Amino acid sequence: MRSTNLDAVATLELIIRREREIQVWCDTCRVYREFTHADLVALAERVGPQFSLIDRRCRCRLTPGCNGWNRFNFKAGVFRPMSTPEGSAAPSARDRRTASSG
After folding, report:
1. CA-to-CA dists, residue 2 to 5, 97, 100, angstroms
2. Is-contact 26 32, C-beta < 8 A?
3. Residue 98: what pLDDT?
4. 3-state DSSP of the chain
5. Which portions of the chain have biased composition (kind: Basic and acidic residues) (predicted)?
6. Whole-angstrom Cα distance, residue 29 to residue 76?
7. What sign results for the dihedral spanned by CA atoms 41, 32, 2, 92?
8. Where are the domains of the chain?
9. Can you give the pTM of this predicted structure?
């Protein structure tokens, strides 16, 4: 069951409309970056406004050569993971790239 907090950031459309703060971070190099409004709009134009960052991850794009996974957080007082207990347990078919295609 998805938490109420995640309902507020369920899609890029909601994130943009509600002006939510989103952050991407790497689980290996520990670098993080906040998305700008322009970043979010550009992403929505590329993948569609109903796209969800919940339980998503992709190979690190924050540090050249890092093979870690980028994950997403949203701000609700402090930055909180955009993941469900089910989605954070194992790699997903929804991942951008698998470890083997790295």
Report:
1. 8, 25, 30
2. yes
3. 45
4. CCCHHHHCCCCHHHHHHCCCCEEEEECCCCCEEECCHHHHHHHHHHHCCCCCCCCCCEECCCCCCCCCEEEEEEEECEEEECCCCCCCCCCCCCCCCCHHHC
5. 93-102
6. 24
7. positive
8. 4-81
9. 0.79
